[in-house]
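Handoff note, outgoing to incoming analyst
You'll be picking up this chain. Sequence as last confirmed:
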Amino acid sequence: MKIELRSLGSRDLDALEVIERQSYPAPWSRSMFSAELRKPGALAVGAYLDKDDLVGFAIASRYVDAWHVMNIAVAPAFRRRGVGQALLERLFEVTAPDQRRGFTLEVRVSNVKAIRLYERLGFEARDIRRGYYTDNREDAVIMWREATPSEKAS
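Most recent structure output, in case you need it:
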């Protein structure tokens, strides 16, 4: 499977919505995606199969002390094939020169597979946000990944 990673744009909104609805019980709206894609401090990376077939995405926003992974999703047929890991690694690569910021994200406490992926990539659980998810009031694990020494040296 040959996946190409590149920047997302407004041309991808339809595909983003499809993957989002397949992935989350309380999906982002089209306007939320559109706003993130226009935000100056945002990074939006897509994983494409056969040039134009979007199969996954990751969106992060730059804040004072961290890059916040706002949203990441992979189409069901492409999960557990390294797409999510590749997307996150691309975010780490693109932001490596930004020496002051690590990464943070929230993940459902029940999403054990995602938590394991994030841990493999250097994230650590730091806290719990009680009742964070609006669809069922599930708690979220707050995870952080500090910039690694090699990233800090870039």
